[in-house]
Design goal:
- This is Cupin type-2 domain-containing protein.
- The chain is built from one helix and 13 strands, in the order βββαββββββββββ.
- It is mainly beta.
- The protein has two domains: 31 residues, no CATH class; 124 residues, Jelly Rolls, CATH 2.60.120.10.
- It has a five-stranded antiparallel β-sheet with strand order 3-4-12-7-10. It has a four-stranded antiparallel β-sheet with strand order 5-11-8-9, with no helix packed on it.
- The protein is elongated and about 60 Å long.
- The relative contact order is 0.20.
């Protein structure tokens, strides 16, 4: 059987390398990032930054699979529990509700005055948490834990615990602004 040949569109010369199996791949892709990585439930890591009232488990990250720009894992919120207030720094966070009916609480500052707002969710729902937004998760269910899968745009789990939902407690890192 002839070895497979993969030549990316527009590739030439030093743009590709031949792997030990004989396949040509883009030279910018290092050997670690040429294959899929499987993380089974037993491989989840609990040594992440934590917020009181919930437990985070790391699945996909720099530590587990060498991810450069992504962090993904699970969060478990026990029955009748609310997490501490926190934000995730410059990271965007996407949340998928696996089980339970978690509530996401934040301070809506877009009106005439700040209003504490609650987003009630259930299995199959998605929630987007923009960078720096102070929030907390609650599980009002008296009998069942809430489980969500989270993905972040940074490969590490950035968690900054806060005393409240007030934006005054958020220290945003200075970043250069681009003019469009």
């Amino acid at each position: 059987m002839p070895s497979p040949l993969h030549v990316p569109a527009g590739s030439h010369g030093d743009d590709v390398v031949r792997t030990p199996s004989g396949v040509l791949v883009p030279a910018v892709i290092d050997p670690f990032h040429r294959s899929l990585h499987h993380v089974a439930p037993a491989g989840l890591i609990g040594e992440t930054t934590q917020t009181a009232g919930m437990r985070r488990l790391e699945a996909i990250s720099g530590k587990t699979v060498g991810a450069r720009n992504l962090w993904m894992g699970q969060t478990h919120v026990p029955a009748s529990t609310a997490s501490a207030n926190h934000h995730h720094g410059a990271s965007e966070t996407a949340i998928y509700v696996v089980s339970g009916h978690p509530v996401f609480v934040f301070l809506d500052v877009e009106g005439e005055r700040p209003v504490e707002t609650r987003i009630e969710t259930g299995p199959g729902d998605y929630v987007f948490v923009p960078p720096w937004v102070p929030h907390r998760e609650e599980n009002p269910d008296e009998g069942d834990e809430a489980v969500v899968v989270i993905a972040r745009t940074t490969q590490e789990a950035i968690v900054v615990n806060l005393p409240g939902l007030d934006w005054g407690d958020v220290a945003v890192e200075a970043r250069p602004r681009t003019v469009g």
